[in-house]
Every structure is written in C-alpha cells, then in structure tokens.
Structures
1.
Amino acid sequence: MAKSSGKAPRRPSGNVLADLGFPDADELSAKAVFALRLNEILDRRDVTQGEAARLLGMTQPKVSALRNYKLRGISLERLMLGLVALDHSVEIVVRPRGRSRAPAAIRVAA
C-alpha cells in the first residue's frame, strides 16, 4: 500500500509544464504554440530545412531545433518574426487579470 504524504493533491494549473515544475513554463508553452504553427506552415509548403532557414532568417541548425521542438535557444521574438516572415500576423493583447481567482498568466492562442 502506498504511503500518504499527508498533503492534499495539488490542483492542475492548466499548464502541464508548470505542473511539472518548469520555472519558465509560460514561456515554453507560448514557444510551443508558435513552433507548432510554424511547423504546420512549413509542412504545408513542403520546404527543406535550408529553404525554411532562408524564409525565416534563421540558420539551418536553428530550423532543425524548431522542427524538433527544441526551443530553449530560440526566442519568442524570433518565433513571432518567423510567423510574420511566412505572411501570418501575430497579435499581442495585454489586459488586467480580471475578477477570477486564476493568477495572471501568459496565454497564446493560435
């Protein structure tokens, strides 16, 4: 029989990376959304990594990292600029948290 720690289970935050203890969970989640969209666009265009590098203004190794979702060395700004380079608009909205009990957070909808 498993031992109880005596602590109540933590409520999920809605961000699996935060629940796993990543200190930069909001940023990683935002990067993942942008990378997913970039990869979908590149897949539809059926471009090589070299062609993608030229289109995105990145090196081929950065494109390889992007394609494999290894995003720690790629900034949010670079990912947003990549979307713009592929003729997509990126909108950033800043607003007060509101009356909910949920903490203020970074959320990306794509």
Note: Helices lie at 16-19, 25-45, 49-56, 60-67, 76-85.
2.
Amino acid sequence: MQFDLVIVGGGLAGLALAVALRGTSLSIAIVEESPPAAPVAGWDSRVYALSPANQRFLDGLGVWQRLDQSRLTAVRAMDVRGDAGGHLEFSAYDNGVSELAWIIESALLAGELRQTAVRQAKLTLLCPATPSSLAIGDDEARLGLADGRVLGARLVVGADGADSWTRQAAGIEADVLRYAEMGTVANFACELPHHAVAHQWFREDGVLAWLPLPGNHLSMVWSTPDAHAQELLALSPRELADRVATAGNWRLGEFSL
C-alpha cells in the first residue's frame, strides 16, 4: 500500500494533522491500535485547556463548529495562589479578549476529529493496526504492520505519544526524567457557581487546579507526589470531595463527586 503520508497514532495530534491536510492532494493513512473512547454520558475525567489559538485552529478545520457547545466552557478569569502567600488574578475582560481558554473533554474532541477525518477523501484509517517494523530509505519509508501489510510513504509521522514506538524504531533517543508525581483527576458538582473562573493553588503537596465545566461542575487536577496521589485515590467519594473542597478553602462550597 502506497501513500504520500503515513501518520502513526490516531490521537488528537495525529487526527488534527490529517484533518489540517484535507485540502491538499496528499494521500494519507492513519495507523492506530484502537479507536478513541466514545464521549461518556457524564463528564470525561480527562480534559484539556485550549488556548484561543487552539480554538481558532480547530475552527479553521471545521471541527469547532461541530462540537456539542453545551459541553464546552470558556474560562473568563483565573485566580492563582502561591504557597508563600502570593496571589494573582487576571481576566479576559481586563486583557481585551473574550476568553482566556476553553475547557473541553478529551473524548469529545477526539471523537469529532475522528469523524471529520473519516469523512475526507484520500484518507485511509487503519484501525486496529499495530506497527511492527520501520525502514527508512533515501526516497521512501516502509512501515510494516503486525498483520503482514507494508505501507510505503514519502513521510512517516510519529504521533503515538510520549512512549512513541515510531521514535524508537527510527533510532531517535530521548531522555526521560521521572518526577515521582502523578496528575490525579476527578470531576465534581459544586454548591456555588464558579462563574467561569479557573483556580490554581501552589501548595506544599503539589499544584491543585479547578477547571470550570458547564453548570456547577468542575474538573480537578491535583499534580502531587506519588504517595499523596495514592492517598487521594484510596479515599471514598465523600472523603475525596471534602479533601478537595478543603484544599481550596471551600471557595465553591460543598463538593460531590
């Protein structure tokens, strides 16, 4: 099978690249081991904060308009507090922009990017497919798949994550530094309205962020040492909700998971 471009990885980066090239004459293949998870009935625990430039990029791809707008939240202001008493506040209004960022669920964005990609001409989605070999020549690269198929391409793009198989197969070295920390995530309903304000605390036990979701809901990301993260994960839903609300000085009242 011959293509101009083969993208290994069908996550956000790989899909966005494929969609961004839809107006070209390039023949494109995406190799992905498993399809993205479908949007969940509740709130996806993995969210992204998209900058206005990200939003404009997705708008230009025709993806932003197709997203369920009821599941998007604009961040209108930020409240950041340091562990030594520092305090920083800033808003979109003060800076002459409509929003500072957008909060979006990972599965929602991945699903729409995938649907947009499969609708375009000259794109072949190979899923499930697992790469097994990579040979790079002067004029083309040849990507072997575990099922025996071989893909030839003028360019192979590795968009397969931090532990990229493509990077390793191409002999590109990477130094990995482990922080001995985890990003612990959960979603909560909060008693008081968040008014589209994102909160962040720099604490002795890590960095705690509250990101606004539609309605009286928020996404929590607590980047913290492994031992503390495991302690949080072992708590009951009620205990976790109270621990997170307490860490934020009950700024948004009672929480429930």
Note: The chain has a mean pLDDT of 94.
